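Assemble and predict.
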Amino acid sequence: MLGLAPGMSLADARAYAPELDVAFADRHGDMKMLERIARWARRYTPHVALDGNDGLMLDITGAAHLVGGEARLRRDVLDRLAKLGFAARAAIAATPGAAWAIARFGAATMRATDADAIVASDPTQIRRALDALPIAALRLAPNLVETLDRLGLRRIGDLHDLPRHGLAARFGSIINDRLDRTLGRAAEPISPLPLAPAWMVQLAFAEPVSTPEDLARIVDRLLAQICAQLALAEFGARRLELSCHRIDGRHESCAIATSSPVRDPRRLARLFAEKLTTIDPGLGIETMTMTATLVEAFSAAQLTLTPAARAAIDSFGPPDAIDLSPFIDQITNRLGADAIVRLAIDQRHIPELTQIPLPALQPSGSPASPGTIESWRSPWTRAPTRPLRLLPIPDPVEVTAELPEGPPLTFRWRRILHRVRSADGPERLAPEWWIIFEQRHARRNSAQHRPLQSARTRDYYRIEDEDGRRFWLFRDGPWSAPAPPHWFMHGIFA
Amino acid sequence: MTGYAELQVTSNFDFLRGAAHPHELVMRAKELGHAAIAITDRNTLAGIVRAHVAAKDAGIPLVVGVRLDLDEGASLLCWPQSRTAYGQLARLISLGQRRAKKGSCKLDLADALAALAGSSVAVVAPDLPDPTLASTLARLREIIGDDLHLAIHHLYRGDDAQRLAHFVAVARRSRVKLLATNDVHHHVPARRPLQDVLVCIREKCTLDAAGYRLFAHGERHLKPPAEMARLFARHPEAIAASLEIVRRCRFSLDELRYEYPDEPVPTGRTPQAQLEFLAWSGAAARWPDGVPEKVRAQILHEIALIDRLGYARYFLTVHDIVEFAKSRGILCQGRGSAANSAVCYAIGITAVDPAQMDLLFERFISAARNEPPDIDVDFEHERREEVIQYIYEKYGRERAGLAATVICYRPKSAIRDVGKALGLSQDVVAKLADTIWGWGRDGLDPAHFRAAGIDPDSPRVDLALRLARELTGFPRHLSQHVGGFVITQGRLDEVVPIANAAMADRTVIEWDKDDLDALGILKIDVLALGMLTCIRKALDLIARHGGADHTLASVPREVPDVYEMLSRADSIGVFQVESRAQMSMLPRLKPACFYDLVIEVAIVRPGPIQGDMVHPYLRRREGSEPVEFPSAELETVLGKTLGVPLFQEQAMRIAIVAAGFEPVEADRLRRAMAAFRRAGDIHSFETKFIGGMLQRGYARDFAMRCFKQIEGFGTYGFPESHAASFAHLVYVSAWIKCFHPAVFAAALINSQPMGFYAPAQIVRDARAHGVEIRAPDINHSDWNCTLEPVEMPPGGSPDAGSGPALALRLGLRCVKSFSEAEAIKLTAARGDGYHSIAEIKRRAGLSSASLDRLARADAFGSLALNRRTAQWQSLGLSNDHPELADSPLFARLPLGPPLPVPRLPEMSRGEAVADDYAALQMSLRAHPLELLRPFLPQRPVLTLAARLEDCADGSSVAVAGLVLVRQQPGSAKGVIFMTLEDETGIANLIIWPKTFARFRAAVRGGRLVQARGRLQRQGVSPYLVIHVVVQGLADLSIHLDRLGRGAGSDSFQPPLARADEVRHPTRDNQPGLEQTPDRAKLFPSRDFH
């Protein structure tokens, strides 16, 4: 008795029970699992429908005798589900509504042997089974159930004595409809949900296929079909799954992914070509299915770039705007998603941290704060403020400079003395104090391998020496420090 | 000698930008040797008074300034040179703020041009090239002339030389001077982390994602003049320009001479003459038998002092407002230190008879303090808005505005915002915030976090705690003061900018009450008090039902029955003394005269409790301890309270008499406590106070207690005069309750929400006093509760002196979700009464939803329709076509015979009670406990609440009941007080922290609980105080659901008193955080303290 109840906020629950363990709900995962159970339930009948997010509706008309009758069927379902680790309730009735009501509200529907959970088609028998159930068993909206409750109408049986027109005048036709359907006075079809994904093509073969050439040819045909479907709907595939059913009942599959929506069969075929070698045909494959598991809207206009746009990209656009995507797709599918990266600008003040690798297939725009090259150009001089490439490790230099913040007058780098003709600066960059704080902490507690950020504020200078060569130097720390600061070369301007 | 003054400074009143308090900036500038300092917050003067005060203390000139961010993108720094220029600037800011929604400002260059003559101005050099800069400068130069500057500063972006060269050229071309600034955002380099965090809070991002929104370095702090001179070595004229501006901008806030409005003074009379006239004619009316000599002397004394200090117009202004309220029949009464004034009593502002009291006029006005008096007036809470709108109308929005309240970061909000900025996950942030309990100094104690399972040593948490500590106390936004009005003779918006408040029809100035105090600007507190509404309604009801037509002043005084009633702690609903703490004090104090009530009001306050003054006083009163005075000098101070200091005045007088403080110093001490606590200040006061008392021969123990008490008083103490004003309302409300219990209950319910108890408890109490309660009914009830005559059984006689016996008819306001507008429609069309539901719908035009709500409340009794049948019928009307029903054609049609109603299942008694509670929050049929008793566990054997007084002290008892209140007062060291109600009465539980830890869920979540424990009784019947010290607690709430309903319906919710701290947490007053009421009710949402 912790005082907890469904619907409570987490903070409240923690207030009641501070030692509470919390696991987050995975609705999506639950739904996926329910769908898997639904697919599994097709062993009993092809007509399986999802019922909300926690139930299944099976139309077993004409199917029960296959497993030895309704009682056996029900017992079989419950036994097997129990073995799989699911607690379940089940009922069988002549109308979907009655079965629903009894399964969810009946007194005894947990045990596999309950006879009450099976109700024949005789309307009076249905009535008898249902009258004692709460009105919520009619699948009415909660507020309607509440209103009826206030009128003292709590069980389905309470409704029979009321005038139908009276109910209709107050609540619309819903109550009468539900009663009629549940009691079998009106028909209610079960509409099995399409469990198959929308983008799927399948080929079955009279003769099992097994040679690589045959497989490749069939993949071409499947791709042609599915691409035609996608084109019609103006979609492109981002992920495709090929699944092969072998004559021995096993099944083999492989998948490809692309960086942008694609519906060019030839390009997709090239991607599959490398994967097909992983398919073991065994004694032969009798069915092959191609499923697009991830699609994105992809209108035809995008395929043809105007010559002007193409030229614009080629001339000065960032490199990833040039259509390298077929190439990237190809090698990423070959080497793995993390193997191919592209460089992006991360908005950070520390120069060596501004470049971050992102997976090439990761959609652009996802880094938290993408910067642009523009931020490295002085708005006043239009000159770049930092070199295109940095030395991997800043190189110590010996400097003579004016105190406290003056630029170098001369400096010696790799044993060569440079005389400074002109200098800009300083550009002052302070360390990210919160990272420094964490680093200090980590060092105190344990050895961590995170690259250390210097805790000193740097002053950067752009230097031109007398030979016209340009360098990017920084002084590591201010002059006010106890020891005189060191100077470093961090890059060379092209 | 290089001189420099920093003139571009952003303080933390530029919310979420500046990272230092104004006083920190000012002190640092002084330390560094700046010639002066300016504060230039964006579009606001909110922090300027604090800077002004700090600058005066530190002895450095303050240049009043503001930064105007214009729509065009340019930013101007403006420093007015004169009072006139300042007035224009304040008006300009008001204009921009009145145009925009709360918290923002909208101005363009044209607005600025019209208002900046007479100011020194600098255009802030932009970060990026701005092609419009030259034209902006040119336009400004036409107005401002040689006082126009271009403010340049070092960005440390590597291209500063080129950037400055560009501006030098622009300045030369535009013929404006250069001004060097450092665009200061904090006073010392060490504030850079907090500055970055503020940016993240403002931008709603984390530090890791903030990127270039953060400064690349921490150079935006105050720098020494020599360093500034070095930085601008190539532009010495830019450094010198700062001194030139300081020289010209000599305007000081001290020049804002406050002038009281003239309006209330009739022509041909001086304000002083008018006040004297009103005082003497008022006194003649107050004392028809002649003004007592003591009072006459007092009035003469006050009038002379008022004349000397020139406060007459202030008194007249307040008098005018009070007269307005009286003319509208709005009850009002002065509170606070004004009650020390005989003049205030004479002219009708306060209600405490100076003849009965020892007045300390100097507490109110003192020539030595030279501070404006502070008159606070309470008005009926329902009608205060009328008074406020009267003031706006009379003086205009340019001359009247509400004072602001600066909302500051508390530990809780600080950790929430800092945690987010540091990227802590939401649940850790929530947990951190939840773990911060108190408001006080030790709000951020790492031990708390460890106890809650958060590792305060984890680097980010550690950082968050450190930064939150730093952020705590930073202003976060301005809000409106509860009722402090500033009214001026001239334009108020030329004194201080006026902005829109969050509430419609309200305008607020940018300064809070401390700022106003510091500048000697008067404010009038127009406060709302629920009890005044209740008393007015009660007095109206008494008059309407044949009683005397009383006013606050005419209620019979010193009636022993009233004191007798209060001494029995029979005080539910009585102003101020209805809380549980008060109720357990009453039988011990046994008030017998008005002054006892004054003490009663003052004693149950955190001040005296913290100072441990309560028990000594009680012991002395009971005679179990001799009344002694630590010294003869203190006998005069403490004589009235048996040697125990209970009032603020006494605490201050002790500081003066016994600790050798100057009167001004003593007042400063009180203020230091009341205002934001600066640890340093208090410590120095403490040393001086205790040292002073020891020196004069007092015991250290007594000295420490006195100091602790002053500490408590700072925030929670009552001055005697204020306690006296409140005691007056205590007496009046108690008198009504004593002699007109039905009236009292009706008025209380009609004034909800107010007070401590829910209507259910008020009704219960009225019943206990023999009042007949009648259920709400569509043919008998109005919106408000009404009184109906009771048919006397033959031989019965009405209570002597209290008119005929009256029954209380519950009003439709008790019906859940029913609106007043619908009630008015219902009563307006009622005529001789309704005969069917359809008729109500047709004649009164009530909506179906309203009819349904009435049906749920079982309000169709006079139509002989039970709750279910009525609901069935009202539902049947819902599908009508309202346009047909309302049309006159159909209205004239005779109603056909109603359709037969089907038989709906009978309702059980339990269901009826449960439904009563659901729709009315109470039941007149039965108490739920009465019905549930057979189902409750048989062991331990339960004692009825009413029988507790028969049990011996220390005996084991068990009680069960609905939970009415749970409280954990700050002064009670974690003890929880819980009140249970069963069908016979209430039981008060005390739960020690250890017990709470064991029964946490039941204490927090229980609606029906069973408690067993030991009985604690004090006093003798009928002056008994009984508590149950809980040893075990079981949550029986599940039984409540037994009462009524099946699955899927509301769970039974007893009507908690408003004071319950689980359901009505009082701590977090952030706007927008209110939860949907129903949900919050079902599941108590936060911890209480």
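Chain B has a mean pLDDT of 83.
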